[in-house]
Specification:
With 255 residues, this protein is α/β, with parallel strands linked by helices. The chain has helices spanning 19-28, 41-53, 74-83, 101-105, 107-126, 139-149, 163-171, 186-194, 222-232, 237-252, and strands spanning 6-11, 31-36, 58-62, 90-95, 131-134, 154-156, 175-178, 200-202, 209-210, 215-216. It binds zinc ion. Zinc ion is lined by residues 10, 12, 37, 93, 205.
């Protein structure tokens, strides 16, 4: 039997060093493709560089993250996203984050998050591309705006919100993704237990620090996510690999 193959559907390769090592370790771990996220202009540029270096393996997404747009010239970055849209497999990482320090105390910041998010949802819809959405502390709004302005295929990455919002996003045919926090995060685990395996992708959100492992993550750690998810679903990592990779190939049109 062929060993399990995974897609890391949300990785910040632009924040990792040791490119060769990262890619080699990912391949050795059974990662068949990595969806690499941009979060602002510089990281979107760097993400496209990774994709050029590892074509067909590091598959790029570009976008403006809700906590990163304050330092960016948003119109310039939006223009960059549009100009390079034919080179990407998705728009991301985009979304809302009402827990962000600046957003907590300032409705104006939340308003700007929504404007930037809507604009990028529209770009994704115009080009029939999937979107990778961040919705910390703002899941309901992230969903409502996605329904109003977004593309058909949306991944609510690292979903840890209310279960009723989860039900409505699943009803819409959207999916969620699991991170290594599936090992320990109460809210994330509750969502992963609630959603059917067919609506879940796996990812690392690397280089996010893995609390229980006491180190930063990289794409090979998608196997940690898969193991934790398998436990929650009372199945094997191989079954998780099969189901999540099939779904990821469909969403990101991976050949
Ligand atoms: Zn991310």
């Amino acid at each position: 039997m062929k060993s399990a193959m995974y897609v890391d559907t949300h990785a910040h390769l632009s924040q990792l060093e040791d490119r060769e090592g990262v890619i080699k370790r990912a391949k050795d771990a059974g990662v068949e493709a990595i969806i690499a996220m941009g979060t602002n202009l510089a990281s979107s540029v760097a993400t496209l560089e990774w994709a050029e270096k590892y074509p067909g393996y590091a598959l790029p997404a570009i976008g403006i993250h809700p906590t990163e747009f304050l330092d960016d010239d948003v119109p310039v970055t939006l223009r960059y996203i549009q100009d390079n849209i034919s080179r990407v497999v998705a728009v991301g990482e985009i979304g809302l984050d009402y827990w962000d320090k600046a957003a907590r105390k300032d409705e104006g910041v939340r308003e700007r998050q929504r404007d930037t998010y809507i604009r990028q949802l529209q770009i994704a819809r115009e080009h029939d591309l999937p979107a990778s959405v961040h919705g910390r502390g703002s899941w309901q709004d992230a969903l409502d705006l996605a329904v109003a302005h977004g593309p058909e295929r949306i991944v609510f990455h690292w979903y840890s919100g209310p279960l009723d919002v989860l039900d409505s996003l699943l009803d819409r045919g959207y999916v969620i993704s699991a991170t290594p926090a599936a090992e320990y995060s109460k809210d994330h685990r509750a969502a992963l237990e609630h959603a059917p395996l067919e609506s879940i992708l796996v990812e690392t959100d690397c280089p996010v620090y893995m609390r229980d492992r006491k180190r930063g993550s990289e794409p090979m750690d998608v196997t940690i996510t898969a193991k934790a998810l398998a436990k929650l679903k009372d199945t094997t990592p191989e079954e998780v690999a099969l189901a999540t990779t099939r779904k990821a190939r469909g969403i990101f049109k991976i050949k």
